[in-house]
Write a structure and sequence with these properties.
The protein has 176 residues and is mainly alpha-helical. The chain is built from seven helices and two strands. A hairpin with a 5-residue loop joins strand 1 and strand 2.
């Protein structure tokens, strides 16, 4: 049988169940509907609306039978089981309202011409503050690789020793 979590109800709710004032739903009949945490699905607001609906309210503890606020998961299990079509329709409507049509979303995409895409993909961005000798790029397989920074003309062949400059005044100096 589906009960709220232990910390949320008191003896008065169990007494009401045993007297027949409240009913429990068998676990095999429970319908679990995923309800997003949208404003329109605030338990406090919906609970007040469902207090007037006898087929839902008979499964919910009254305010004086709760030791804390109504648990969200329990509330939506009850509503989703008793009024499953209504709850699914409300979730769908709320999602469509927020996310809209996928056709409208496609209109908001930025279309890039092939020429501009080639120019953007041509080389890695080099910051003026970048003084390191290695740049991170992506290889043909899409995984990050490292490549040596190309040196300015006349500064050597691009090896690590020549990346310090033509004068050789880097941290490595030859000891000949």
């Amino acid at each position: 049988m589906l009960l709220p979590p232990k910390d949320f109800y008191n003896v008065n709710f169990l007494r009401a169940v045993l007297c027949g004032e409240k009913k429990l739903i068998a676990r095999e009949h429970v319908v679990d509907t995923k309800v997003p945490r949208y404003e329109e699905f605030a338990v406090k607001t919906l609970l007040q609306q469902f207090r007037g609906v006898p087929e839902v309210n008979i499964h919910l503890p009254e305010d004086h039978q709760l030791s804390r606020d109504m648990p969200r998961e329990f509330f939506f299990l009850i509503v989703g089981t008793v009024w499953k079509d209504w709850l699914k329709a409300q979730v769908k409507h709320a999602h469509e309202t927020r996310c809209g049509d996928t056709t409208r979303q496609n209109d908001s995409k930025i279309h890039v011409t092939p020429e501009m895409l080639a120019m953007l993909q041509d080389g890695a961005f080099r910051s003026g503050k970048d003084t390191g000798s290695n740049l991170r790029t992506k290889g043909a397989d899409g995984l990050p690789t490292q490549r040596r920074r190309e040196t300015c003309e006349g500064e050597g062949d691009g090896t690590e020793e020549s990346a310090t400059g033509a004068s050789g005044t880097g941290s490595r100096q030859s000891t000949t």
